[in-house]
Amino acid sequence: MTLKVTAKGFELPDYMEAHIESEFAKFDKFQVVFHSRNVFMKLEPGRQFIVEIAVKTSVGDIEASADEKELSDALNAAFARLERQIIKKKEKPLAHRSELNERDKENFLKEEEASAEAAADIVIAENNK
Fold first, then answer.
1. I need a labelling partner for 38 at 20 to 30 A (CA). Which of 22, 94, 104, 117 fits?
2. pLDDT in tens, 97-106
3. Per residue, what are the HEC states of 17-33?
4. What are all long-range contacts of 12-18, with beta carbons under 8 Å and residues at least 24 apart?
5. 34-48 b/e with 16+ CB inside 10 Å = b?
6. Count of structural domains within the chain
């Protein structure tokens, strides 16, 4: 898992790389494996910071970006967007409309029918005694 931080148009403060690392550590709760992590920060004319985050994860490639007047605000907004996208990609297979969910529903219904039939057979057997 590599972390590549690039700053263009300004000098990146020393504490900022540690802050970025701690922000990525917060994603451990989602149990997602990061294969590569790229953070690109750019200072536009007019003191506008643009932060772009591109990651390769076990749930796919994800990109998030934000632009704000302050670097820390742009970084926090980009990480918030990244978090929403990770949740979305991680939860999508469990969505109501997914094919996997349809198969699970069918299997569940079959199991319910089989258990209902078994219960009915037991009741009939007990009544015949």
1. 94
2. 666 666 777 7
3. HHHHHHHHHHHHHHCCC
4. 12/41, 16/71, 16/75
5. beebebbbbeeeeee
6. 1
